[in-house]
Structure formats: structure tokens, C-alpha cells
């Protein structure tokens, strides 16, 4: 049995895992097949650190959706753990190329735009998307970020997100890790 998408309206299967996406979900574009494990909404805790700041905790909600075209739309928002106040947010598109490579375009209210290329690897329990920024563009008032790297690893109903950046004069250094759970 292959790991390709089998869609009967609202259902997708990936390996042994079945996903329900709502009655009116359009057919998945074949280029998105390897990304099926990402689809849906994820929620959970995260931890942040960087040499120039105090470490912090946050809550994250991350959604990957599709409209039948060859990309997934990504929307993320985070909250301060204690107060619930909004922290970082971002929105963008994952663009699988069908040959194991993938692109990501992403914009942030902090004045930063990232354009990534990377790889998609199907795994026994999900998928591993590993991205390195080709370009980081800054609005005039944004903080100085030179390079970024991002990784999204799905294992069953757990999504682990990691983020590294070279910023504020520091070399590429880990800034964030969140461990999210698939929402029903
Ligand atoms: C889950 C998403 C994120 C959260 C919750 C988060 C949270 C934070 C917090 C709480 C700070 C310290 C705030 C302060 O002291 O001003 C910070 C600093 C910073 N973050 Fe993030 N961040 C996130 C994502 C990002 C991303 C995607 C980038 C870059 C593309 C980024 C770049 C920075 C920079 C440059 C600083 C400033 C460091 C400094 O002032 O020395 N952050 N972040």
C-alpha cells in the first residue's frame, strides 16, 4: 500500500493514520500528498531562549489548511503562558515541489519576511520538513535577523516545531521549540 492520498470527500489516509477534514474539503492536490500528516490544527506549549534575552514560555496554535491547490496555508499565533496575551504570529504558504523539495514563504507582524527552501521526508509516523531561509527581508524598523532555519516533525498526533536564527549579531542559534498536539 502506498502512502499517497486516498480521498473520498472528507477523508485522507497516510500510512495507518486516517484524517477527517470536514464534509466540504476539496480534493487534495497530489503535490501535497507527503504533507497530509500536517493538515489540521495543532495546539500546545513552547519554550524560547536566545543569548540576548531572558528565556520564556508560550502557548501556540498552528493550522495547516488546503484549498485543492499545490500549497498548504499556514497560520500561527502564540500567547504568553501566564497572561494569555498575544506574542508572535505568522502566516504563509508551504509549496511542495513534488521531488522531495519544498518552499515556504512567510510573513510576520514584526516586519520580517522569510523565504525558505528545504526537504520533505515521509516517515513511518508522519513527516519531517526541514527548511533553511534563502532570504530574510526586514522592514526598516524590524530587528536585525540575518538567517533562519525551521523544522516541523510530525510523529502521529504530535508536531514538534524548532526555529533557529542568526540575529542581533549572534550566529545561527536555537530560539524556539514547541511540542503541539493534533486538535480534534
Ligand atoms: C513562537 C514564536 C515566537 C515567540 C513566542 C517569540 C518570543 C520572543 C520573546 C518573548 C522575545 C523577547 C522579547 C523582548 O525581550 O523584547 C523575543 C525576542 C526576539 N525574537 Fe522572538 N519569538 C518568536 C518567533 C520569532 C521569529 C520567527 C523571529 C525571527 C524571524 C524572532 C526574532 C526575535 C528577535 C530578533 C528577538 C530580539 C532579541 C533581542 O532583542 O536581543 N522571534 N522573541
State the CATH topology: Lipocalin
Cα gyration radius (Å):
17 Å
Number of strands: 12
CATH architecture term: Beta Barrel
Question: Share of helix among residues?
Answer: under 10%
Q: Reading side by side through the largest sheet, how are the strands ordered?
A: 3-4-5-6-7-8-9-10-11-12
The helix-and-strand class reads: mainly beta
Q: Point out poorly predicted stretches.
A: 1-9
Strand content: over 45%
Shape, principal axes of CA atoms: globular
The overall pLDDT, averaged over residues, is 91
Tell me the name of the CATH homologous superfamily: Calycin beta-barrel core domain
- Please summarize the sheet with the most strands: 10 strands, antiparallel, barrel
Order of secondary-structure elements: EEEEEEEEEEEE
Report the span from N to C terminus: 26 Å
Level-1 CATH class name: Mainly Beta
* Bound molecule types: protoporphyrin IX containing FE
Put simply, the count of helices is 0
How many domains in all? 1
Give a structural overview:
There is one protein chain. With 184 residues, this protein is an all-beta fold. The protein has one domain: Lipocalin. It is built from no helices and twelve strands. A hairpin with a 2-residue loop joins strand 3 and strand 4. It is globular. The two termini are 26 Å apart. The N terminus is likely disordered. The site of protoporphyrin IX containing FE has 21 residues, from strand 3, strand 4, strand 6, strand 10 and strand 11. Protoporphyrin IX containing FE (HEM) binds next to strand 3, strand 4, strand 6, strand 10 and strand 11.
Amino acid at each position: 500500500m502506498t502512502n499517497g492520498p486516498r480521498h473520498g470527500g472528507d477523508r485522507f489516509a497516510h500510512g495507518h493514520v486516517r484524517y477527517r477534514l470536514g464534509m466540504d474539503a476539496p480534493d487534495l492536490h497530489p503535490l501535497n500528498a507527503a504533507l497530509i500528516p500536517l493538515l489540521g490544527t495543532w495546539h500546545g506549549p513552547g519554550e524560547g531562549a536566545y543569548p540576548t534575552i531572558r528565556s520564556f514560555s508560550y502557548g501556540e496554535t498552528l493550522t495547516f489548511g488546503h484549498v485543492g491547490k499545490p500549497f498548504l496555508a499556514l497560520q500561527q499565533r502564540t500567547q504568553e503562558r501566564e497572561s494569555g496575551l498575544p506574542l508572535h504570529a505568522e502566516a504563509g504558504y508551504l509549496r511542495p515541489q513534488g521531488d522531495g523539495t519544498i518552499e515556504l514563504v512567510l510573513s510576520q507582524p514584526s516586519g520580517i519576511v522569510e523565504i525558505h527552501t528545504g526537504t520533505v521526508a515521509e516517515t513511518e509516523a508522519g513527516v519531517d520538513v526541514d527548511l533553511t531561509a534563502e532570504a530574510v527581508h526586514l522592514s526598516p524598523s524590524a530587528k536585525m535577523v540575518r538567517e533562519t532555519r525551521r523544522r516541523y516533525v510530525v510523529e502521529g498526533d504530535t508536531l514538534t516545531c524548532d526555529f533557529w536564527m542568526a540575529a542581533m549579531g549572534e550566529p545561527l542559534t536555537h530560539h524556539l521549540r514547541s511540542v503541539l498536539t493534533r486538535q480534534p
